[in-house]
Amino acid sequence: MTSAAQVRPPLPGTRRRSGLSRRGVLRSVVIYVSFAVFAAWVVLPLWFTAMSAISQPAEMVARPPHWIPLRPTLENFEAVFGTASKARNSSDQNARILLSLSWSLIIGVSVAVLNLLIGGLAAYGYSRFRFPGSRSGYVFLLVSRVVPAIAIITPFFIAFRVTGLINTPFALIFSYFLFTLPLSIWLLRSYFDALSPEIEEAAMVDGASRLRILWIIVAPLAAPGLIATGLLVFLEAWSEFFYANVLTSQLTVPPLLASYNSLQTFSWNTLAAATVLSLIPPVLIAVIFQRYVVSGLSHGALK
Amino acid sequence: MVMDERELAHVKAELDWSRRKFLKRAAALGVGAASLPLLAACSNNASTSAPTKAPASAAPTAAGPARTLEFQGWEFQPEDIKAHLAAWTKESGVPVNLSLIPNVGYGPATQTKLQGGATIDIFYNLTYNTGKFVEQGWAHDLKGFPGADDMLNDMFPQARARYTTPDGKIISAPYFNAVHTLMYNKSHLSKAGLQPPQSLQDVYDQSKKLKANGVKTPYVAYWIKDFCEEYLNVYLIGEGVKMWDDSGNPVFADDPKTKAVFEWWLAMFKDGLTTPTMLTDDPIKLATLMGTGEASFYVLHHYFLKIIRDLKDAPEKDNVDILYRIPSATGKTFQMGEVIQMGTKGEGRSVDDAWSLMKAYGWKNSAGQYSTFKSWAKAAQLGAPYPAFFADPEVIAAFGTNYDMPKLTDVFANGSDVQGGRSAAWYQTFQAKVGDRVHAMLLGQASPADTVAGLAADAKAAKGGI
Amino acid sequence: MSSDASLDGTASETPKQRSVRSGHSKLAAADRRFGLLLAIPATFIVLLLVGGPSLQTIVYSFEKVSFIGPTPFVGLDNYVRLLNSDEFKDSFRITTVYAAGFVLISTSLGLAFALLLNERFRGRGIARTLLIIPWAAPWLMVGIMWKWFIDADVGMFNGLLYQFGLIHDYVPFLANPSGALIVTIVAAAWRQASLSGLLFLAALQTIPPDLPEAATVDGASTLQRFRYVTLPWMRPVLMVVLVTNVIFGFLQFDVIYAMTQGGPGNSTTLLSILLYRQIFQFSNVGIGSAIAVVLGLVAFTVGLVFVKFLYRSESVYGRAVE
Predict the structure, then answer these.
(1) Which of residues 130-189 of A touch C (CB under 8 A)?
(2) Does residue C256 contact residue C272 with C-beta atoms inside 8 Å?
(3) pLDDT tens digit string along C6-34?
(4) What ipTM is given for this predicted complex?
(5) What is the CA radius of gyration of chain A?
(6) For C243-258, what is each residue's pLDDT tens digit?
(7) Domain harbouring A271, CATH code
(8) N or C: where does chain C have the smaller number of CB atoms within 10 Å of the terminal CB?
(9) What total number of domains does chain B contain?
(10) Mutate to test the interface with C, among B39, B42, B280, B429 (most CBs of C within 10 A)
């Protein structure tokens, strides 16, 4: 430790204690133990699923359990893809999971994009401007989240049936868009609120139209918030089960997993393989964009 | 959800001041907004108000190209389903579109779709749903369709009650049949010096002895909520209890044997002769317990014997045998089966096409073969309600490896009851309650006597249309 | 007003700008029009297409709905039947317990995780990545994974307990009514804690360093710093997290559906499951709609309680958080 560092009180979180000081050791111990507990909490169920996916069913009943399978196998993945050699697998797999994954991706991205566009504009409007009905409109949007979506599915079903959109991705894109719009408007409005309007005002003084300001100035500035919102909306759409189950024939991943779950020919190991496959895209996307989430939620840089 | 604190506080203040204005505005907007879906619902109501009548003749009432039929089933042997549909399409020239729905939640999902006005020409259904679906106008009464009576006459006499109602409607066609049997581990029993059980009391006593001998969970059965109603039939039919009178009123509560059955049911669970997870376990898991020797008795559909014999890593699987006379006072067992029904949205020649497909799928194809039933027999040894099916050499060969065909056929023909009351329009409501009541009893929340009384009350309430 | 609605509470508009904005000039009128134009599509869409069906549900709750016959208006009849129904009362109690446990666990774990991840340590990057992973798993999948994780034959959770000698035989958690309720709460909280953690972490990261630094200069200990700087700062986001968790908790369906389907018995039959059974299994749309209305109202009310409870203007180091 240099004398300079000891003279100035260090910032919290960056406090670097001498490794020999008791408080420093205690702090490290607490932190690393907490880290271990936290990591275990997150990882254990996922580890179990992953290990089950490469295990044979017979190995699962070992006591104490095998933390890593002694005889790993790819047969579960083969069963999911419908290429299993044993004909006992009587479900129509043949890469249905790949199809569902693709649809889930397409639908998720579409919903996110729609939200960012339409919800983003609305959020900006609510944030920057005061107009008649703005308060009630905004509150109404927030309150709409308490509606149990399950209860209102029938009108949607009828509407989609009448328009011939049952079992198409549009039915889901549209429904998910409706239910995630309040979330994205809230998130983005909070973000815009914290974004100083000085630059926009300067641009307006310079004669730029409001739309240009939005597109050229605000959007790039709001990038972290947009990414965070886009990701959260994507994950909400990805996660939805009930509407997908009713409005489509297992078009997306959750209803497909549900059907695997009730397949009598699918053991837990095969189901685990399907689960692992289904987790790869959202986890990848989440991991890639996760650093924007926190900053996007905390509205960018502090002045 | 995520109400901004300050916004909300200010809004609340505003609301207090101008509540009337706000409500007026909201009402105006809401009425306008609500009218759209309400209109849709109204038009839907009108179109589902009455099931269309069955055409009396076989001739198409409308010429022109055939509409693609919609066929819905659950996830079992989808390749076979596709093959059957393709074969029929080849013959008839009518294309068929197949949708598969997961097993879990199949009933509610189908109901939602039909309620929403979807066109499903033929769909799998669970027997206990069929009466309700016809009453609600979601499924056709097939009485009067050409060949419907012949189809019924081709069946085992007592099986007909599943597809008909007392007032003469024909509400479904067969998909598959099965009988409840007792599968048991021969070597467990012989080691304990026991003969196969003949009565419920035997099952209890033997289970106790086997448990003392080290069998972890002697008796397993598929007691999840949704399936308790099947077991209700199994146990009561076995004891010779008449469940419904001719008007469909519950009379099982009047029979003292019913209470005895429920006391046995509770004792099996409470005294640890089963596994506590049986209230939620799936049947494959239970079959695995038989395969590993952790269980000695398994009461479920006969085709689970094949499932047990096909298990991998199941050292005891060859020791598992099947008892064709289910342990009970009468030896009669419950014959269950799931069915196909015809939707009511079809018009003109679609109805005729659908009926033709229905006959091919649920009875015989144009070559006079029970082709679909044979495929299920080969795949999983499922049964059918037709005597001629059991006489078919291909079927006998398919069953032969695991089953004593004459004995099995005899159970279907004479040793089982279909429990016709299940096709009543109100039965689905009752069926759902059975699981609730039985589970409550098993979990110690209600006594057997109260459970029986409660079930009788549930049946009356369901029948009374509440 | 717009400035106050952020997690960190910093102001971003001067009062003059605000007054110009809110309407004393032609420019302001043009502004208002523009704002309206931006906000109308989204708001109108939700109003019509979520508000409409919701209103219809409310209307249904006052009717005896039939799809083959007349649908008469029955006033409060459905609600009265609910209040007299043991099934409903049980479900209400179970839902409340579930939501309480869910909110408690998600919120406290989320806060704990955020505090941890706010510290500097080796591996923090990995830890941050771990935080979001549960949120990437669909609710249904969370239910399926946890159902097997605590399975009585092959579950790893039992395996862990067994390995450490805590149990001699695997425990069938889901077969036991209270066990099932607890496990479904924990499973759902496993995912929700991540969202709460992310929100808390975002707020923690916005604490201006001069605040805790000033506290340290004043001689505050770590605990005191936490109590007098961190916690008050977190009040707004705590409110947001609590209300979010309340809504998710009351409306939870997928996890229960995947894990227990409401069983064993009725021990995990939340109002959402009851609603599902009434509408989709029994076609009692009137009763089901009444349940939906009750559920929505309860979630709204509890959320409102948290807002009122936690919304208090307060000064922190002389600065009004207003």
Answers:
(1) 130-134, 137, 140-141, 143-152, 154-156, 178-179, 181-182, 185, 189
(2) yes
(3) 444 444 555 545 544 554 566 677 778 88
(4) 0.85
(5) 25
(6) 999 999 999 999 999 9
(7) 1.10.3720.10
(8) C
(9) 2
(10) B280
